[in-house]
Amino acid sequence: MKILSIESSCDETAAAVIEDGRKILSSVVATQVEEHKLYGGVVPEIASRRHCEAINGVVRETLAQAGMTFGELDALAVTYAPGLIGALLVGVNFAKGLSLATGLPLIPVHHLRSHIAANYLAHPELEPPFLCLVVSGGHSHIVEVKSYTEMKIIGKTRDDAAGEAFDKAARTMGMPYPGGIHLDKAAELGDPDSFRLPHPKVSGAEYDFSFSGLKTAVINLIHNAEQRGEALPVSDIAASFRKAVVESLTDNFMRAADDLGYHTLVLAGGVSANSLLRKKIDEKAEKSGRRCFYPPLELCGDNGAMVGAQAYYEYLSGNIADIGLNAAATMSIEL
Question: Which CATH superfamily is domain 2-116+299-316 in?
């Protein structure tokens, strides 16, 4: 089964053709990063306009790379939630137009489910059930993936997501957008034990995260030093901050794996590209006799391929949209 999938939830206009949820026939991503760097983050109105400008060309190039026409496709898929509402609407309405014009069924796909499914493209042997840590700019979840379409949140952030905390801390350190990538690189050159930073816990919810206090602590550290005219070692701050975030993520994730008895672990989302997070999860998984999967770097960020991977399993479960499909800025992965 060949599916043309579309992704436009934030600042990447992307499309792909995926076969049977596991094979990438083509994948195209048009990024807006350079433009949003001017503002230190994604400007929703600009993102929506750029999606409008790029989406037709991206879809055409995707089909050309696959050497296919619409007549050779079996279905269409699109990210419809969660994300920036204006950006999502561009992809949803474009996909609905294609569905009407071609008669192809349209599969609605949840963005976070797609990030998890990116692993199916890289690891043919991976099948549910497993425990997944989903970490991105807007989300930090521990998810029980019971089947390809049945998922349960057992832990989540109560405030900032890990990726958001990385980006805001990096911006305070003077790093350009997207800050998380630059912070990770700077941290490789620093001493992670230079600064003692808090490791917030959520009372009564041992699997939940809280990153706002940690983010505020490092921002205050930097601002206070600036007010005193002191220059702090940025690489050491970055390393200490990264260590604190990664320890919070890995501690809760591994505790959940122990308590729930999962032996297969999965990382997903943009922050799954973080080098220390991968290293620590690998180390803990190996010590406990578990196996950990995570997507290659090119599939960690937003892309159309991951949408097509999840769409295949949504289709098999009977999840087909009609012309009334709408976008949603927020929606639980549990549906």
Answer: ATPase, nucleotide binding domain (3.30.420.40)
